[in-house]
Amino acid sequence: MIAKSHSSKSRSIKSENPKTGVSKTETSKTEISKTRIYKSGNVAIVGRPNAGKSTLVNALTGHKVAIVSRLPQTTRNRIRGIVHREEGEIVFIDTPGIIRRDSALTRQMMDEVVHALDEIDVLVLIVDVGKKFGAGDRHALDLAGKFSGPRFLLLNKIDINAKETLLPMMDLYGKALPFAEIIPISAKKGEGHALLIEKLLEHLPQGEARFPEDEYTDQPERFLASEIIREKVLHHTREEVPHAVAVLLDNWDEKGKLIRIRATIYVERDGQKGIIIGKGGAMLKEIGTQARKELEVIFGVKIFLELFVKAQANWRETPALVRQLDWRLQLDQLAEE
Fold first, then answer.
1. Rounded distance, CA 265 to CA 176, Å?
2. What is the pTM of this model?
């Protein structure tokens, strides 16, 4: 079960209303409990980096719940995406890719994966069929083996790989673990999505709706804003500063149809800071412009965005700063304001 805490200063993201933008209406637990559905449960999606976890969650929810990049370690928190159907409600938990615990940041990321197993009804292991089986896949299999409930195997990226690769992959994973379902999919193109939803609903327990029908994630708006900014940094800097980047919001001021956001982009070295700022501030301006435009679409209001860049050596080894990247901590802090 997911415990939800709402306040006037911490809202979950809802489906966009064409007239008012993102819905700001709070729905009480009493109202939610009145809407009964057939099935309701949590589904964790695990796998090696870049297997397609975030792409799949975004596609299934029909909204941008998790940022996407070709770079590994893009997802750092457990991110929930909610899918509503007449037959039931599925809460997908997008987890960080399975990696080594070699810093305070990666240790927190892997803790996110382990904790996800404590609250799920079905585990989904997603595999890139175009990649050779490696250490990351072995770690993901070991993790899946610790879950005693139904397990699904998704063979992803069938749109860009030969079908001949599927049978050997099915055989390899089928011998390693028993899977309730093995489904070839394309997270990007939508192939296999309907079948996946159908089979998941078959395996989920009966339950009540826990979320309003217009809610597609339980992340606070501030966390999503910081993630969108980080995504734009990753897209523009590519291999130059990927894992050294963190974004924290310093200020969020909302008045009517305008949200003023001030955020700091953290890197580890002055050279990385210079790359993000760019010549005459051109790179930082472009990052800010793209982030602002996307945030305006998501929230349905005007955004005034100020970005700053700060070099803080070894921030990934600083537990206090790493904890600030956890959206659940941000939610607790907002509730105390």
1. 42
2. 0.71
